[in-house]
């Protein structure tokens, strides 16, 4: 699985896409189950983020496009402080040591969840990294992006703002 994801990610990188081709809109479908341990050893599920718009990013430390977009995810988190938004990154099919080695080079303030056996990655049908799901405050998948983007600007920010606007109108 890791090899397949790596080849897909390399293909995305070779295509020269600093910006992904675009988001795929979804018809507000319930998100698949998610259960993963964070870096503190606490088990997390999507229920932990209910009431918030969630940017759920599947990534790996060996994936250059994944690493390129991480700083923009952190800028998004900082920019949206105090708003009902959660940025969550799920590391796909790596060991804790591999994740820790990466995080020693980059400071991120959003939760990192671990999926060492790739079970969440399979359940969510992620075939290339990075893949990111935008979930509404009710935990429904609304948009999917395969490939990297700058999360704190452009189409990504417009979509996130539109989902946040739905939260404030309730």
Please describe what this structure looks like.
The protein is an alpha+beta fold. The chain has a domain at 49-86 and 157-170. It contains five helices and eight strands, in the order αββββαβαβαββα. The chain has helices spanning 2-14, 64-79, 96-103, 119-123, 154-168; strands spanning 24-30, 35-38, 43-45, 53-59, 85-92, 112-115, 131-135, 140-146. α3 (96-103) links the parallel β5 and β6. It starts with a helix and ends with a helix.
Provide a brief overview of the structure:
The protein is 34% helix and 26% strand.
Strand numbers in spatial order across the main sheet: 1-8-7-4-5-6-2-3
Q: How many beta strands in the DSSP annotation? A: 8
The number of distinct helices, counting runs of at least 4 residues, comes to: 5
Global mean pLDDT = 90
| Residue windows where pLDDT falls under 50 for at least 5 positions | 3-20
In helices, the fraction of residues equals 25-40%
Helix and strand content put the structural class at: alpha+beta
- State the end-to-end CA separation: 41 Å
Shape: globular
**Rg, Cα atoms, Å:** 15 Å
Biggest sheet details? 8 strands, mixed
The portion of residues forming beta strands comes to 25-35%
Task: Give the topology string: H per helix, E per strand.
Answer: HEEEEHEHEHEEH
Mind sketching the topology for me?
Layout: H1 2-14, E1 24-30, E2 35-38, E3 43-45, E4 53-59, H2 64-79, E5 85-92, H3 96-103, E6 112-115, H4 119-123, E7 131-135, E8 140-146, H5 154-168
Parallel strand pairs: 4-5, 5-6
Antiparallel strand pairs: 1-8, 2-3, 2-6, 4-7, 7-8
